[in-house]
Design goal:
By secondary structure, the chain is α/β, with parallel strands linked by helices. It has one domain. It is 59% helix and 10% strand. The chain contains 10 helices and 6 strands. A 4-stranded mixed sheet has the order 1-4-6-5, with helices on both faces. Helix 7 packs across helix 9. The chain starts with a strand and ends with a helix.
Length: 234
């Protein structure tokens, strides 16, 4: 299986658009993304509730942050690129083993640095976000987490088209399955060697299912069988 390339770059406009999306619709998977992943890092944004035009306020805040922190953001992005270059070959080897040489759905993926900790992914065009102010372990965790999503959804849809072709990848059982899978495998020894042990990984609503998924994976690392058994549980 040939490995794809992972590009890392900035896109301020994307950051602004997604910040507004998460401000407007903040609850997901038992988490309040705006409070936990925006306000905790940018308390000045509490003022957004007091202004007449919150969209303009948010756009201006982000634009000014990018301008005033340009040099620092550039240095941090360069470090992240180094972290990825040091680890990605090992990541691809692990994935190749788990997915039994299943080909990647795209030749190129793009990670966009963000000043927020939302970290969404976009299956349709191979993009995702990385929180610029995370530490090395969390940044690698995020990159590999989103990359796992891209190949997991493709693997499941092509291996079991009758089960997944009509299911949403943004909510419901298919989304649950993908998130649970990531938590399970990213807590295995192979992934811990890549990015360290991540204490808080997974949505609160998935807590009990993660335990069941982890127990199944320990018994048998056959991904197809794991998917079949987990879909009966979810």
């Amino acid at each position: 299986m040939s490995n794809p390339t992972i590009q890392l770059k900035f896109d301020q406009e994307l950051d602004q658009d997604l910040a507004w999306d998460f401000y407007s619709d903040s609850e997901f998977g038992g988490c309040n993304f705006w409070e936990e992943r925006a306000l905790s890092h940018h308390p000045k944004l509490l003022e957004i509730e007091l202004v007449k035009n919150p969209k303009n306020f948010l756009d201006k805040y982000i634009s000014e942050f990018y301008s005033s922190h340009f040099d620092e953001m550039k240095r941090r992005s360069q470090k992240t690129s180094i972290y990825l270059n040091q680890s990605q070959n090992d990541f691809f080897k692990i994935v190749d083993k788990i997915f039994n040489h299943h080909p990647w759905p795209r030749k190129e993926f793009t990670g966009f640095f963000s000043i927020f900790d939302f970290c969404p992914r976009f299956l349709a065009w191979g993009g995702f976000q990385i929180f610029l102010y995370d530490n090395r372990g969390m940044q690698l965790f995020t990159i590999f987490h989103e990359m796992l999503h891209f190949i997991f959804y493709d693997f499941a849809q092509k291996t079991f088209p009758e089960k997944f072709e009509n299911l949403s990848t943004n909510e419901g059982k298919f989304w649950d399955l993908a998130e649970i899978f990531n938590v399970v495998v990213q807590n295995t020894d192979d992934f811990i060697k890549l990015h360290g042990k991540i204490k808080s990984s997974g949505y609160p609503n998935h807590k009990n299912l993660i335990i069941k998924g982890r127990n199944l994976w320990k018994k048998n690392q056959d991904l197809s069988q794991w998917i079949i058994k987990m879909m009966k549980i979810i």
